[in-house]
């Protein structure tokens, strides 16, 4: 059953979004952007391009994966072409607020902190935090991370969580680098969403073990848009709901992640 978040309308907020390291200056609310996007005929969506199989650059230098497929299908159902923008994850919300693109379709976890400065459509899939080590590692419990070097992706919610635990961390640009550093022994463990790492393990790319994390809870990934756009939010949600209902979503999920992840 499709899960739908109520799109919250807020006045302009100032302050910092702690987990993104982003200072948000006051900005004026604008008219809903759907009409402008329709006139332009193109929906511009952003992602890191470093999060396989959700979004990554293939050998033909094309951005492919679950996220661009979902974003492209949503745009198509809205009568629009799609433009995919890749950008560093730690600045992706800043780019959205600066109107460098219309939406972020990049596996962004929906959190209260983020929801203070942006709105979300979805969630369009669900995952949860997971901790991985190399197979055979002495680290088998979360408590042992206190004495370990932990790798995280810069700007992700997992970075914030690891810092809150007081862990000794190294930060990286994306999942490929994170996995490589773990495989090479430069970190003892990594913290990431469970699905992409488990898929890499299933494909035989890495010999890893998952550390049981009883405190981890499922969290939804949403499509981020600027506040003050109820028409745009409704149009995107309608397209997302329709593709979930008619089987298109499942086809995309089967192709890129091997099953339904709603």
UniProtKB/TrEMBL annotation:
It comes from the Bacteria. Residues 42-260 form the Solute-binding protein family 3/N-terminal domain. The keyword Signal applies. Residues 1-31 form the signal peptide. Keywords: Signal. The keyword Iron-sulfur does not apply. This is Amino acid ABC transporter substrate-binding protein. The lineage of its organism: Bacteria, Pseudomonadati, Pseudomonadota, Alphaproteobacteria, Rhodobacterales.
